[in-house]
Amino acid sequence: MILLKSIPKIDKFINNKAFDGFSKELITKISKKIIENLRKDILENKIDSINEDILVFQVIEDYNNLIEPSLQTLINATGIIVHTNLGRSLINKKSLEKAIQIATSYNNLEYDLIEGKRGERYSHIVKTLQNLTGCEDAIVVNNNASAVFLILNTFTKNKEVLVSRGELVEIGGSFRVPEVMAQSGAILKEIGTTNKTHLADYENAINENTSMLMKVHKSNYSIEGFSSDVDFEDIVKTAQQNSVIDYYDMGSGHMIDLPFNLSQKEPSILEIMKYKPSLLSFSGDKLLGSVQAGIIIGKKELISKIKKNQLLRMLRVDKITLSILEDNLNSYLKNDLDDIPTLKMLFTSLETLENRANSLKEKIDTICTAQVLETQTLIGGGTTPNRKIPSFGVTISYKDFKPNKIEKLFRQNNLICRIENEKVLLDFRTIQENEIEQIAKIITKVFN
């Protein structure tokens, strides 16, 4: 076939001047694929001519699509501060800059500068956590799910762990406490009922094979009405009286009292540590407002045993995580809470949010219909389930555009919002002050 003979030769095609400055290996790979598809189209009589300029354009387009970063910055206008799908907590820029300095230099990650010999990577955060929480020792792994697994695997292999039926939770990504326990080697012993568990349920279930009394935070739901559970303080006392380990999987732990009376049902890490628990674990990237990590604090003898578990090497964190976490924990120690973006957003006053909302409204009033209103949102990230916090937002309407269409147009420009009462809403609980001008430009671009 004449057309087949017109197909460009790969060795000549890839030397087209349009490809100057591109990776020759990648251009070759893409070109082979496009030309092979061209050959198939000719054989199937789908085309009757070849335009080499179009082929070049296709190669360059595929090349740019391949090398374009998949992870992109977004504007979170959903109002959900710890948004699991949007990267959870923001990291303070100053903390990241310090981490960059550490990561791009040799450092004392596992080197004791005083003794001049091998050191321990976890030592960099232990002193701060000891001063913050009063714990005897601490260790950090890559997330709280890892912390749960590691603790159970270390202390409860082929032994019973007592857990209330009302706390056998499933969180995002089908992470189920019973299945994690089974894989860790622990034997789950359910006590109580879904809605009510009493201290006597723990006491009556303890036997010679009981290793641990475990409490699990109900991270993404709450039981209302005719219900009760056991305070962790009582679990600690019962565990001590029976010479077994008490362990609280807090999920998302917060270091200080939260606003809007959220701490009434969500005690802080510092409150829990008053009971002198055996072990406590919580996430670094939720309400703590730091980097993704699973933090374990508690008795020194127990932490020492965890450090000897061979699984720890697979779950340990790197120098960047430790650097950011150490800096954020020091912010708590110094009471520089504005250096924790999650807390800064959570504690921002309603007056400030309303002023920012009005600032955006003034910028876009001639572009679309905008209305400032009071609203409510959630912290998110498996924290404080069903407990709403007040906020201010701006609703956006434009001609006969349906809310779904506006939401999609915004999303295509990396502005993520929510639909409430059949209107697109931009919630200022999560909109940074320096993003207002950018949002106004996106709205102008979309509707123009």
Automatic annotation (TrEMBL):
Enzyme kind, highest EC tier: transferase
Keyword terms, alphabetized: Coiled coil, Cytoplasm, Protein biosynthesis, Pyridoxal phosphate, Selenium, Transferase
Annotated compartments: Cytoplasm
GO cellular component terms listed in the entry, alphabetical order: cytoplasm
Coiled coil regions, renumbered to chain: 343-370
Gene3D superfamilies: 3.90.1150.180, Type I PLP-dependent aspartate aminotransferase-like (Major domain)
InterPro entries membership: PyrdxlP-dep_Trfase, PyrdxlP-dep_Trfase_major, SelA-like, SelA_trans
Xref: HAMAP family: SelA (MF_00423)
Family: Belongs to the SelA family.
Protein name as catalogued: L-seryl-tRNA(Sec) selenium transferase
Species name: Arcobacter acticola
